[in-house]
Amino acid sequence: MTVRYVATSRLPTPWAVFSMHGFLEEGTGKEHVVLTLGDVADGEPVLGRIHSECLTGDALFSLRCDCGFQLEAALQAIAEEGRGALLYVRQEGRGIGLMNKIRAYNLQDQGADTVEANERLGFAADMRDYTICLPMLDHLGIHSLKLMTNNPRKVKAMQDAGISVFTRVPLEVGKNIYNAQYLATKAGKLGHMFERHLEHHQD
Predict the structure, then answer these.
(1) Is 128 a catalytic residue?
(2) pLDDT for residue 94 is more than 80
């Protein structure tokens, strides 16, 4: 899979003014972006997050997941550090796409958990491909990440894809009454680690 760099611009946010780097995944036409802050090409491990697109959580304020909360917390953490990178990767619904994600949500409305719903639709629990991140990181001179994630399997998958993970940094935010089962399934079936009590958001 070829990923081609397109352009860079400034992106002011509530937390910092990031540099936004655009990349095109040739063959699929998917467009990915990386937000960076500070000197990320100095050879030192970079505080970072590989954030898979979640339209419902990131843009529509869904409380069914913790994605939007994690996105904001990651950007805030990078801003506080003064240096870091967030890869926004267009792999909606752990790789199954938005329409299939809505189908999965419908099954969850009927009682299935997030893993069961994917499997009933004929998908694996996680369809994401992290190899597409490697050319983006290489282009930016990032060779090692302090990765913000609760998912040790994600760390292993990235290392298997050739991405060096210096350490894992917990990112535990966004628990609420609508996603409690979702988070429990993440822990029980997908191996996510929650090391402290999650901040609880009420609707």
Answers:
(1) yes
(2) no
